[in-house]
Design a protein that fits this description.
The protein has 3 helices and no strands. The protein has 86 residues and is mainly alpha-helical.
């Protein structure tokens, strides 16, 4: 499965705990990655500085569904379900 153009749900909904260019402390959940361009594409896609987390998150029917809204909601629920409780 290929990513939906101009979606970027996976670059917004989940937290990223590893450093990435422009976000040395990672990225909080729900915050757009600073590496998103004006078309919601990744500026570091395929580059060595791209976090392993990003490369490991692959699109799927379950995750992406039939809309960007579905993907955002699904990934937000996943983030909440896997967030360590304080």
């Amino acid at each position: 499965m290929n990513c939906r153009p101009s979606c970027a749900s996976c670059c917004i909904a989940p937290s990223i705990t590893s450093p990435l260019p422009g976000m040395p402390n990672g990225k909080p959940a729900g915050v757009p990655c600073v590496q998103l361009d004006e078309n919601l594409g990744c500026k570091v896609f395929g580059k060595p500085e791209r976090p392993a987390f990003c490369g490991g998150l692959r699109p799927s029917e379950e995750m992406c569904g039939d809309s960007r809204e579905h993907a955002l909601a699904w990934l937000t629920r996943l983030e909440q379900a896997t967030c360590p409780r304080v």
